[in-house]
## 1
Amino acid sequence: MGRAPWLPLLLLAVALSRCGSLLGQPRRSQQRPQQQQAAPQQRGLFPAVLNLASNALITANATCGERGPQMYCKLVEHVSRQPARNPQCRICDQRSRNPNLRHPISNAIDGKNTWWQSPSIQNGIEYHYVTITLDLRQVFQIAYVIVKAANSPRPGNWILERSLDGNNYEPWQYHAITDTECLTRYNITPRTGPPSYAKDDEVICTSYYSKIHPLENGEIHTSLINGRPSADDPSPTLLEFTSARYIRLRFQRIRTLNADLMMLAHRDLNEIDPIVTRRYYYSVKDISAGGMCICYGHAKACPFNPATNRSFCACEHNTCGESCNRCCPGFNQRPWQAGTFLVKHECEGTVIAFLLIVHHPNIKLIIASSYTTCI
Ligand SMILES: *[C@@H]1O[C@H](CO)[C@@H](O)[C@H](O)[C@H]1NC(C)=O
Ligand SMILES: *[C@@H]1O[C@H](CO)[C@@H](O)[C@H](O)[C@H]1NC(C)=O
């Protein structure tokens, strides 16, 4: 028969760069159930948590001095021992050329020591009710919200709220001056001591951050992920609970000194010495909202695009879509799944097996391989 023997040549591997797995290679999907300690390359990818408030659009529905100069005074405890002239009193004026007299709400997200301030209740009891709204311009997963007061105590009764659409708001956390007011004002059993959470979407009421002290520069830390049951590997419930485009701080009662409380409750505001009522207002030096893009465990980067004012997920794991929320075309071998802290759940291409036999007098070439589709 032939002169030279046919050369059996079996090519089992056709390396298609960047195009997924090859037949015969162990697939990660077949290795389940996963061990608890997943190797880093097996885990989902998550973007860094950033302060999203600095890029937000922020509004407040009342600001000190918005209709011209107003006097306010700082809260100090022993008023009677004050010198007669009021060294603790200052002027706010939104129309002033002097930036030190203006306290717009943008001061709360500018990263500086400047602050926002509300009109004092000398202007009317309705100034207990002031609302601050942040629009983050797109939906993010919010990990925490930190509010820092400036030259007044922290707010007394208030609700931290979130919204996806700017119309329907849901509470994240209630704050009340006393545990009793959690029940009487908000009809919620108070959570005593430092805030703790029994469920991923539990909305608590706490008086922990509504104390009168410190009189200035107090802070309020609200954690939406840490301390919740599935914090280490967030459940769909926790993901939903922490999703927000709008964050609202609905202030409903200014914290007053106990000595002033009775007087304010039982007398006409006009009868009260203005030195007392001018001391009561809200102030906010800083609002931070730590959060990240929602990329469902499939992106480790989410850069901000100044052209669109939006951040976008840099999708990996063969996922596509604004939130990496579907498999890219051609990578539908398995249904899309969110990556988690433990498992990456990447999308995989359709396996196409082929066999190519070349007949030649001198060569018998058999290529048997498979590749994943790449489009
Ligand atoms: C601010 O808006 C809230 C509604 O969120 C309202 O209840 C409150 O009266 C408003 N405050 C002022 C001073 O207009
Ligand atoms: C992005 O936001 C800035 C500041 O709010 C604004 O001036 C600019 O017009 C916005 N750009 C787009 C494309 O919306």
## 2
Amino acid sequence: MRVVIAGAGLAGLSCGKYLVDKGHIPIILEARDVLGGKVAAWKDEDGDWYETGLHIFFGAYPNMLQLFKELDIEDRLQWKSHSMIFNQPSEPGTYSRFDFPDIPAPVNGVSAILSNNDMLSWNEKILFGLGLVPAMLRGQKYLDKCDRKSWTDWLREHNIPERVNDEVFIAMSKALNFIGPDEISSTVLLTALNRFLQEKNGSKMAFLDGAPPERLCQPMVDYITARGGEVHMNSPLRQINLNEDSTVKSFTIASLNENEKKELTADAYVSAMPVDLLKLMIPNQWKGIDAFSKLEGLNGVPVINIHLWFDKKLTDIDHLLFSRSPLLSVYADMSITCKEYEDPDRSMLELVFAPAKDWINRSDQDIVDATMEELKKLFPTHFMGDDKTKLRKYKVVKTPRSVYKAVPGCQEFRPSQKSPIKNFFLAGDYTMQKYLASMEGAVLSGKLCAESINKEFSKTPQNVS
Ligand SMILES: Cc1cc2nc3c(=O)[nH]c(=O)nc-3n(C[C@H](O)[C@H](O)[C@H](O)COP(=O)(O)OP(=O)(O)OC[C@H]3O[C@@H](n4cnc5c(N)ncnc54)[C@H](O)[C@@H]3O)c2cc1C
């Protein structure tokens, strides 16, 4: 069966990969000249990589880890020590750690929390631990129910002091969805905490050993094309054309290079585009259908990814760091954490700037200046005196609409991979799967989409085109 997929992010590529595994022929069309969507990366004039986002892989990503195994590229994940490391704003230049010992879950997580005495008091730890019991015992149903309230409301409901937010959850909430705890749905944090506490290696983190388009997306493309599928770059979907019964007749594709349009027909059609772009392309005949009108409730959140190349080393920490800065979210010294970006003498910090709504329209220079002011607090000794660390160059990548903003109530807007239209399917991190907006969510959505297509079409006799 021939399946046309619009979008070569992780969801579209995963859908293609699992379709070829089932013997189908995916034709993947990517609008841009780079693979990966939100994991896309480019080389600058010196040959240094810069990325759409600083990306962390977690032990609690079963579908992503399985994919690495199936592509035979598991050695490309660089696993770090099982810890979470936070900057200490009250003592600039110092860190507070949650270290997870090598013992079964949830004891390792409980031990990591109990043995950290910098950030939470005993009273806060006990109240917080009690608050988490329903999530651990009642699972997904409880998590879904919590989507009605923000994380801050959830804390209040459980009589947990809001100071806990300042210490830990502003940082975690910004890391998970680029917004603060007053805005984020409590489902997001509870889902992450649940995985981290219930799975021994759930919160263990890995960096990819190089740029995602080459080190992760290209092996997926090679896998797909070696088995008869196709991947075409610079081929944006422009229009979804319908039959009289509202099923899809064809996709109109533009070629960016040749300025020409062509129509592609297939047995099934998939949108693996971001939700904001899909919304613009929904045909009028579908607009009254509940699953499509609900998409209006999902909106991408702005975020900025910054790369700063310095003339010296700023740190020797081989890990992700939670900055706890009002402007910044997580960051890492990629010259240490990532093999391909390695530099023994000079740091390259990659930092996520969030929340970014007030900054997304500001100039790159303004954003870098503000970031440098924050870095002076994080590295107080490096930017003073005669031997100051100097910024050699920078790159700023803005994503005005990134992953869907996970505000309270938006779980119900997330569509299934199987749409109400018989030959039209959805893949993407925003579609319903339990890993929310993440690389794992994108890969799982692609896999579920391929399964839906296979199931739907194995029910009815098909004309193989
Ligand atoms: C700054 C940042 C940091 C992040 N950090 C993490 C992290 O640490 N861990 C984690 O798990 N996740 C992280 N994420 C989230 C993760 O990147 C996404 O959840 C995931 O990559 C989304 O994949 P997707 O395939 O659903 O969508 P996308 O990656 O958006 O892919 C959609 C694709 O569709 C293409 N497209 C658009 N329009 C058309 C068209 N008309 N025709 C054809 N193609 C089209 C796009 O070009 C794109 O390639 C981060 C994201 C950002 C932005």
## 3
Amino acid sequence: MSSQPYTPPKVWTWEQPSGGHFASINRPIAGPTHDKALPQGKHPLQLYSMATPNGVKATIMLEELLALGHTGAEYDAWLIRIGEGDQFSSGFVEINPNSKIPALLDLSGSEPVRVFESGSILLYLAEKFGALLPQDPAKRTQALNWLFWQMGSAPYLGGGFGHFYVYAPEKLEYPINRFAMEAKRQLDVLNRHLAENTYMAGEEYSIADIAIYPWYGALVQGLVYNAAEFLSVHEYPHLQRWADNIAARPAVIRGRIVNRVWGEENEQLAERHSAADIDQRLALKK
Ligand SMILES: N[C@@H](CCC(=O)N[C@@H](CS)C(=O)NCC(=O)O)C(=O)O
């Protein structure tokens, strides 16, 4: 790898490994790499995931639904170790041909329902349980605007800024500048909106907040990419207020630790099969 100017060849070919944190799992082809069925537990919902920002959207949602009393949202959460290529097993690819976590299997009906893309999982669960998505059409649209905003914007934060600031094999000024500028623009979009609104869709907490918090809320809290100082996040006080408010919700505290295998012992729970699994972890002293 070199930071010398690069002249692309006529035809791109795959040279492996290309370097960087995820080099060993990145490939230019889709499909399974090995035959392996996924485990299944006893609950109606089976989640296959890891506690990355996209993964915790699903576990926070499920914990919020359980907190609201929707017992049909009971779930087994199985760990997919993306660094070890579990997302390329035949069983996982059957649920998500895109080989990315999170993926959900709903076994409650006559036919299994396969759900992938974290935004689709949030919408599916909100509609299934009639919760966390406003009923009023204008407010519902507001929530969906921000849900889709998150799905379209976060790749610039994660795949752009995060990749070049943290994971790339070399620190390169051009991409870090470009994506830091875009990340700050997005933070300002949120800050301005939250100056006028308690939550993303107005007064009602919704799937839009659940989608945005694990990326942008965690970023301003210094939990993602350790970039709070670099991105001067003190410039976004309304976003900070909203993030602190969301982070304190019991379902968020619970959902964050599911399928997490790093950090403090009381914040790690590789698999979740009952509420007691989370209770026991959280009860461990730091
Ligand atoms: N747009 C997808 C993105 C999912 C995604 O990028 N997941 C990452 C972890 S946060 C992943 O599974 N990476 C493994 C890989 O790229 O092989 C979603 O929101 O569900």
## 4
Amino acid sequence: MHVSIERSGCISCGLCASTCPEVFRIGDDGLAEVHQQPDSGLEDGAREAAENCPVSVIYVD
Ligand code: SF4
């Protein structure tokens, strides 16, 4: 699994970081970033964050 964020579209709601903080965090610029790619134990959380992002800018492949 590889996770990425189209950061220019992030509205800084913080949901991804609260859903799966091992993978997502809010960066110094106030936008979400991936700070660690998910290992197998974190894939469900990463997928849930992607599905629930209000502006659908998290991509999982
Ligand atoms: S859930 Fe989406 S909009 Fe909200 S902080 Fe994460 S990437 Fe940004």
